[in-house]
Fold:
Amino acid sequence: MRIGDSLPSILSTDGGNQMTIATGQISIVDFNDAPSLTAFVSTTSPKTQIWDPATSKYTPDWTSSSPVLQPSLFVSSEGTSDQIATAKSVKWFDSADLTTALVTGGAYTVTGSTLKIAQNIMTGSIYAKTFICEIIWTDPATLVDLTVRAEFTFNRANNGATGPSAISAVLSNDSDVIPTDSAGNNGNFTGALSTMYIYEGATDVSSSWTVTANPVDITGTLSGRTYTVTGFAAGKDTGYVDLTASRSGYASITRRFALSKSKQGTAGTTPTLYRLIMSANAIQKNISNVYTPSTITASAKSQTGTGAYGDYAGRFTIEETTDGTTYTNKYTSSANEVSKTYTPSAGIKALRVRLHLAGVTPSGTNHIDEQIVPVVSDGATGAAGADAVLVSAWAPSGNLFKNDLTTSLTAQADLYKGAVVQTSGVTYEWFVQKSGNADEGAGSGWDKLDSTNQASYGVTGAVNTATLTVTAAGIVNLAAFKIKATYGGKSYYDTIIFYDQTDPIMVVVESSNGNIFKNGQISSQLLCRLYQNGDEIDPKQSTATTGYKYTYTWTKLGRDGNQDMTFGGSGTKKGKWIDITDADIYQKAVFKVEIT
Structure:
């Protein structure tokens, strides 16, 4: 039988080098794998808002075209449908204050699970705004509340001022649907790839940037700036890869390529793959409003099973948007066609092209693939002004910890004057969010990190440095850090959040001969097993004490509930397993194991 307790993967530290990750004891329970939760946030508005100082206008203007943030929740035990309606609670937070949930009033309207923004909140020195959605879902099998968080970041770009052009990044493919059989197997990944392009104004400067990939629940390979997907993680129906472009002296840019399965056909067969291919990933517009290329060609491809990958005659719809939000239909196929060449209208923000099956009458919902082609442009020349100064906090290697207690990540602070990172004349102070803490230089609720307290927060390098090292031991669910950069007698702030998505470690204590004996005839072996994400970790070796990642310390409680300090000679025994006999038990005993 399996008997034990499931506990979080990080419980406490003992002040030294040892960390207690879990405990277990010999008690009979129903051992179930916890379902995994996946959440993401979508929006009705573009992620980037443009501010034009010459006209004092935002595009889109959130006072009249309010973005609505909608969370989605997928639960491994509940199939592929969105479970957000079954959530126990949904709360929204501004990443600058993770202690107070957003409520209806002022700039925000909270309705059910959605968050609506009704004001232009990225003003002054605010060039980005991140929102955190916290979802609590109750597992009906165990009645345990499970928590998952998703974030969404808006960015602001300025237009119209003399100086460097805005930096933007575009993916050749933002999302893809992989056809599989009804069991989710035999996926067709032909053409499941995305290339990242970086523009400075309307100029393609991709060759000057380095792209890295962080795949989640998918497998694939990165070649240069192109990521090719080859599969999903076991048991996963959705996944994504974050592509991050980096360049010395510039803030990094991250874009997400999202994938999901379309289960169709019958088990064991591969259905037909359909793919929409665009002749360009973006339309470049110069200061004279001239488009390059002047036309865009959409082509359709298909492949059935392992057959040839070739042209497909389907139906196309082409739409345009002038505000980045509302699309107007400009073309609909009247007959099946393999490709369509289209000339974009002047003054648009983007094209949206959709592919429909052959012979159908296209509608807004029956498309089988979609691509959006943005317009990137050089800013208009305006009045000269002083260079803006801002500090940007970012994570060069990502901000997510998962299932590795030895992992450390870094937070990097860059202070910009104009488009140039300043390397002298800047002093840095780091703070960690601590509820109720008095103002120590970064506002209430932030504890200043220094040489005396940084170890207790699991960080190093916090004293007057632009780089902060964060360890997994310092993160329970999530932790927010604020950077204060002082330059030219003024202080500038930014915030970064690190997340811990470590799966809980399940502790199982096994007794080789059960846990009930009669007449003092006792002989058994107690073995501690650890499970994480459904797989056994730190498996049994040939000896009880060597070759393991963790240390196992056993104690015994007698029938009176008190610890037996003679057990093992000093009150404890160590080992992955221990042997017990009638000498260890008088009527009843409880054996407890602590894993460090």
Q: What stands out?
A: Residues 1-17, 25-33, 160-164, 381-385 have pLDDT under 50 and may be disordered. The longest strand covers residues 145-158. The two ends are 25 Å apart (CA to CA). Residues 28 and 559 are 17 Å apart (CA to CA).
